[in-house]
From TrEMBL:
InterPro entries per the UniProt record, alphabetical: Growth_fac_rcpt_cys_sf, R-spondin, Rspo_Fu-CRD_dom
Secreted keyword on record: yes
Family as reported in the entry's similarity comment: Belongs to the R-spondin family.
Domain of life: Eukaryota
Pfam families named among the record's database cross-references: Furin-like_2
Name of the protein this chain belongs to: RSPO2 isoform 6
Chief location bin: secreted
Keywords: Disulfide bond, Glycoprotein, Heparin-binding, Secreted, Sensory transduction, Signal, Wnt signaling pathway
Organism: Pan troglodytes (Chimpanzee)
Amino acid sequence: MQFRLFSFALIILNCMDYSHCQGNRWRRSKRASYVSNPICKGCLSCSKDNGCSRCQQKLFFFLRREGMRQYGECLHSCPSGYYGHRAPDMNRCARCRIENCDSCFSKDFCTKCKVGFYLHR
């Protein structure tokens, strides 16, 4: 019984310590990445912890992942390896499905390959 209680206490303390570290890293990365409040730029709805959940009409929603954290951003164009998918309810960035594609027009139309690869026409 004591071993179980001790194990449980260690797990709780470890989780508390981990969440504290993650929180500091999150705050530090937000400050480095954004200049003026920032995470909610271009959003229709936003939270300080998760970023955007809805974007203005012409912007693309992109779900950025940093370790275990993920947050939404509203962008004018999608980052490398993603393409802009427009839909009536929400525009979003979707990952290129073609292997070794650096930039794509749609899920199956690569426009630029990663270094060391070439487009086949």
